[in-house]
Design goal:
The protein is of the alpha+beta class. It has 2 domains: 72 residues; 113 residues, Immunoglobulin-like (Sandwich). The protein has a 4-stranded antiparallel β-sheet. Strand 6 and strand 7 form a beta hairpin. The radius of gyration is 30 Å and the shape is elongated.
C-alpha cells in the first residue's frame, strides 16, 4: 500500500470513529454523557465537525500534491535511444549491429538539450535547441565496431516549465552479446509505406 493510500485509509478510519463516537454520545450510550445539557452536546458535535474538517483538509492537500506530481510527470519529455540502419549478416540475414543511433522523444518538448554521447572512452558533446514529440536527433553514425561494449548518453534539458532535468540512457552491447540476444528493428507504421 502506497503512503498516499495509507494516509487516506487512516483518515477514513479516524472520521468513521469520530462519527461513531459522536452518535454514541448523542444518543446517550455513554453513562457520563447522559447528564450533558443540549449546549454541551452541541459543543461536542462542533468539536467533532472541526476535527472531521481538519482531516478532510489534510486529505485534500495530500491529494493535490499527488495530482501535481502526476501532472509534472505527464508533461515531462520521455527520452529513449533508437538504433537505426541495421547491418545484416549476408549468410543468415540476421541483424548483427547498427550504424546509426538516435535520441527519440516520446513526450512533451525538451528545450536546451545538451547531449553527452560516450563510447569506448570517447565522448561527444552535442546540442539541440529543442526536441519535440516524436522527434529524433541523430547522435551517432558509423561502424558498429566503433561503439565498443557500452554506450552511455547523458542528457540535460529543460521541460516546458523550464525545470532542469537530467537523464542517463545506456545500451550495454557486451551484455546483449553475452545473453545471445539479437537486435530487432523497430517499425514505425507511419513510415512503412
Amino acid at each position: 500500500m502506497s503512503s498516499f493510500n495509507r494516509i487516506i485509509f487512516y483518515a477514513a478510519v479516524l472520521v468513521l470513529l469520530l462519527l461513531l463516537f459522536s452518535l454514541a454520545a448523542y444518543f446517550g450510550m455513554f453513562g457520563f454523557f447522559q447528564n450533558m445539557s443540549f449546549n454541551d452536546i452541541t459543543l461536542l458535535v462542533g468539536i467533532v465537525n472541526v476535527g472531521t474538517t481538519v482531516v478532510f483538509a489534510i486529505v485534500a492537500t495530500i491529494n493535490g500534491l499527488e495530482a501535481k506530481k502526476t501532472r509534472s510527470d505527464f508533461v515531462r519529455p520521455h527520452l529513449s535511444l533508437e538504433p537505426a540502419y541495421f547491418d545484416y549478416d549476408i549468410k543468415t540475414g540476421e541483424i548483427i549491429g547498427f550504424t546509426c543511433l538516435n535520441l527519440v522523444n516520446g513526450g512533451t518538448v525538451a528545450r536546451d538539450v545538451e547531449i553527452d554521447f560516450c563510447c569506448k572512452g570517447k565522448c561527444s558533446a552535442l546540442y539541440a535547441s529543442s526536441v519535440g514529440t516524436n522527434d529524433r536527433v541523430q547522435i551517432w553514425n558509423g561502424m558498429f565496431s566503433e561503439l565498443g561494449d557500452n554506450i552511455t548518453v547523458n542528457v540535460k534539458y529543460s521541460n516546458m516549465f523550464n525545470k532542469n532535468l537530467e537523464e542517463v540512457l545506456t545500451i550495454n552491447i557486451d551484455s546483449i552479446k553475452e545473453a545471445k540476444r539479437k537486435f530487432v528493428p523497430v517499425l514505425n507504421p507511419a513510415n512503412s509505406h
